[in-house]
Amino acid sequence: MTLQQLKYIVTVAETGNITEAAKRLFISQPSLTNAIRELEKEMQITIFHRTNKGVIISNEGDTFLSYARQVLEQVGLMEEKFLNVKEQRPRFSVSCQHYSFAVNAFVDVIQEFDANQYDFTLRETQTHEIIEDVSRLKSEIGILYVSSKNEEIIMKLIKQNGLKFEELFMAKPHVFISSKHPLADREGISLEDLEEYPYLSFEQGEYNSFYFAEEILSTLDRKKNIKVRDRATLFNLVIGLNGYTVSSGIISKELNGENIIARPLLVDEHMKIGTITQKNMPLSRYGKAYMEALKRHI
Predict the structure, then answer these.
(1) pTM of the entire structure?
(2) Is 8 helix (H, G, I), strand (E, B) or coil?
(3) Could you tell me the domains of the chain?
(4) What is the pLDDT of residues 244-270, one digit of tens each?
């Protein structure tokens, strides 16, 4: 077993595809495949199951990868300390629903490590993709919410993919509206108050059922519905159309501007917002720093 082989399997796990991993590693696909098979033979385990769509990490491969990542991280630290290697390119990725505190925490991690080179990724994406990204090691951490309506389905998916959910905080639903909205002066807003205004939500692709909706109370029938893919578009429509969306209530003026405000939604419901990570995999130093940053911002 070599460090090179460990780098190979971690890259394959991150990309989920042998061909893509070979391109990233600048080696041929057959060479990469042979190196992985030799490692699997030596360790007497199956790390990856090959499919038409790519590779799937086996249960024992999941555990082996957790050790491989630890070894590579420690080697990187040793090289920095004893060989004065400062040109390491740290890699870290987060997949999340559209939360400003997740972005703020990501900024903190980048500033904390202040590397000359880095390859960090923040994916504000669809709920099902968040679970998929973490299960395939495309992202180290995912952030999403569960409620009384979707918790059973989401938790089942999380468990099936060998992941764990850790609650960050409990929130009451809030309405995000323009500061110039006709309801902006209300201390609390009811669903009846919102009936005539456009409802904005994030599109979930082929998994567009209420179980995967980013917005709580998505099962309610509304007269005016608009689906979008990104946060900037949503907030522009909130302002331009006097629309609204439903979220946790945590808002960042730095990211979202002063034109967006949050008001409590008068319903008997709650949101548990938390992180998902690999069940048997310790966090990297970047993952640990990100978790600490999250706690500061919420």
Answers:
(1) 0.78
(2) helix
(3) 1-83 (1.10.10.10), 170-272 (3.40.190.10)
(4) 999 998 877 776 668 899 999 999 999
